[in-house]
Amino acid sequence: MSLINFYLKQLNEESVTTRRMLERVPTEKLDWTPHVKSMDIRRLATHIAELPTWITMAITTDGLDFESNPYEAKFIDSNEELMALFEESLADGRSQLLAENEERLNYPWILRSGDTILSESTKSGIIRMALSQIIHHRAQLGVYLRLLDIPIPGSYGPSADEATFKQDEEAVGV
């Protein structure tokens, strides 16, 4: 399997769980944060929803300079806007996972802030990092939802909130 096809398969598989997690973000709690050092749920969920666009950025650019291109987070005001942003970002990320871009995956990609190099990688490495970031931040979101007493979906099997997990526990006497 080519790397492009591998990344597309992983993006498609992870998008199912990511969508299920983002769908649970409550509009009325967008400003909620579990700790003073934590992002509020709006910022975290928006970041997760935007991450697939890093795939396109990795393939179509040679890097990102925060000094000349500062990050400006999109501001969502409802779960509907969050889901629309995710679907738009997902389509954007998929748009460059094409066979003709396979050879570009080994090209260098640099993250910097002006003259300070923050990270040097390959385009493939940045795509892998973006996919890992989706998974990492999705797990953080799961903790936020748990603290808000919102049932969370399973990622790679049932969660403790899903009936099949509860039935399995009862069957083994937990």
From TrEMBL:
<dbReference type="InterPro" id="IPR007837">
    <property type="entry name" value="DinB"/>
</dbReference>
<comment type="similarity">
    <text>Belongs to the DinB family.</text>
</comment>
<feature type="binding site">
    <location>
        <position position="137"/>
    </location>
    <ligand>
        <name>a divalent metal cation</name>
    </ligand>
</feature>
<protein>
    <submittedName>
        <fullName>DinB family protein</fullName>
    </submittedName>
</protein>
<keyword id="KW-0479">Metal-binding</keyword>
<dbReference type="Pfam" id="PF05163">
    <property type="entry name" value="DinB"/>
</dbReference>
<dbReference type="GO" id="GO:0046872">
    <property type="term" value="F:metal ion binding"/>
</dbReference>
<dbReference type="InterPro" id="IPR034660">
    <property type="entry name" value="DinB/YfiT-like"/>
</dbReference>
<feature type="binding site">
    <location>
        <position position="47"/>
    </location>
    <ligand>
        <name>a divalent metal cation</name>
    </ligand>
</feature>
